[in-house]
Amino acid sequence: MRATFMYSAGDVRVETAPDPVIQQPTDAIVRTVLTCVCGSDLHPYHSMDPGAANPMGHELIGVVEETGSAVTRIKKGDFVIAPFAFSDNTCVFCHEGFHTACVHGGWYGSPETGGLQAELARIPQADGSLVVVPGVDPATAGDSLLASLLTLSDVYLTGYHAAHMGRVEAGKTVTVIGDGAVGLSAVLAARQKGAERIILMGRHTSRTDLGRKFGATDVVAERGADGIAQVMDLTRGEGSHVVLEAVGHMPAYEQAYGIVRPGGVISRVGVPQYEDAPIGFGSLFGKNVTLTGGPAPVRAYLEDAIAQVLDGQIDPGKVFDVQLPLAETGEAYRLMDSRKALKVALHP
Questions:
Q1: Mean pLDDT of the chain
Q2: Parallel, antiparallel, or unpaired for β 120-123 and 106-107?
Q3: CB atoms near residue 3 (< 10 Å)
Q4: pLDDT in tens, 166-191
Q5: What sign for the dihedral angle of Cα 286, 218, 154, 320?
Q6: What is the pTM of this model?
Q7: Cβ of 70: how many Cβ atoms within 10 Å?
Q8: pLDDT (tens digit, 9 = 90+) per residue, 244-257?
Q9: Alpha helix locations (H) across the chain?
Q10: Which domains does the chain have, with CATH numbers?
């Protein structure tokens, strides 16, 4: 099969690799219909030290080719969505809705599990991880439907998780920091949850225009102190009830605690590219602010989100503005890194 590997910062290659095989009775092999590049993939693209080939990718929709002997819920031929983290869906943490902490779970993108930017993928804990899309034949489904279903593997439901953990509800003012695919997904999720006002902080017009279509009522292009001042002006000096931080860099976190109102919530889903963050009197403590968020337990939300997509309630696939063949994955990284593409889908 063909699969994507990263060798160092900026060095992405699609190479011939052995087809994955069943290693555990709980595994399944899935043939890719669509995969994609994630904004979080750009972190190693900027900073990875040279070394052994690292398999890439963690988002996938596909068709089951083979199942292990212990797999009973998923069968060959099923059209499925693979969440970006695998889980058994039975442990105590899965039952509590935090599948990314599953005691038998894990992550893609290692030599042991492989990556999902590939023609075939081994899915551990297949019964717990994979979710069947009912009534859809990927061979005849439209591109827009497939794109929306692919967002449920990670990006839309990561935005949804931000809104969920931030306790977004009717009457709340929500500010979303970041106009990438996750930030735009958070705008859409906040609208679905009934937010009264949604302020999107982003400076790329093509992206913020989509944000307005998704439900943003205001756009703030400024960053830093100027951006904070504008949000405070829009909120009559009160600040935002909920701030959804979808970037992961320190300046975004500083904006978040600068604009959150007393008693408000900051919900972070941008993978933090820092270890130490202020939590003292001048940032969180003095305002009685709640800090929450983390890796999205996509599996917890999948069935409901699939129904919303199939019913036409949401169309999160609009975040994909480019589609390329898997062989051009390196170009997909370059387009996203240069901001010439918002999010790139890849087909075999």
A1: 97
A2: unpaired
A3: 27
A4: 999 999 999 999 999 999 999 999 99
A5: negative
A6: 0.96
A7: 12
A8: 999 999 999 999 99
A9: 42-47, 92-95, 126-129, 143-151, 155-165, 181-192, 205-214, 224-234, 250-259, 298-310, 329-337
A10: 2-154+297-347 (3.90.180.10), 159-293 (3.40.50.720)
